[in-house]
Amino acid sequence: LKCTSMEKSLEKKAEQKKSQIQKIIDVSTPSQMLCLALTLILFSKIPACISSANTYSRFRKLENPSYDRESLEDFWIVIPCSLVIRLIKVAVNKSSHSYFKGKLQHKYSGETLENKIAKCSRGIFKVLYFTFTFCFGLFAVLRQTPFASPTMFGDGEMMYTFGSWPYTVMPYGLKFYYLLSFSYYVEDGIMHLFMPPNYDYWEMILHHTLTAMLIFASYMNGFWNIGIFVLIQMDMEDIWIGMIRVVMDYSSTAVVAILYS
Asked: Following CA atoms 163, 168, 169, 173 in sequence, which dihedral angle do they give, to the nearest 10 degrees?
């Protein structure tokens, strides 16, 4: 038993000494390498995507000079938004650390405990952030559009979704809502690179890259009238995903099953 205990202790120390790159290599299964390859392909398409979207936006401005068009300059707000998101995440982590440590320390220890605490705090942030963006997107942005039906708390009709496209008038707050959503995936994708890697490491990088590109493309190409429905639906789902991350390591199976359902 002593030998087994010593071997486990040595294995933990060896794991802790591994660099981030070594840890990433350890979890890079064939499926994860496929995700990495797809991510690199997407990155290679980013310059062409930006150029195409900018050209399309410029021509639309020539056709209708009075249109309050989308532009690449709008994306400067992503930098301060990403920084604010990072600061709020750090604040949530610090304020909730002792609480989750008390909940989890009987079950985990060492680096594993800290990783579990960090996961729970990220879950708390997701619940807070996506509750805000869901409510803001639905009640402050979507209901101002002419295609928000009564079931969406508006007084419009879905038949007007493409009524004046591509010159659909942007409702107040849409740019902020869209670019805040873009900022979230940029910040979360960058920080994910430095997180302890697990079985879905490259899969999440692919997810964040693809989502950010889709938000950018739908915004710059005037398809926000469709994208807003997708974003609101994603925000609602992520509230529940955040809740699951918070409770899955210390709540009963029944509670987790209810949240999953």
From this structure: 110
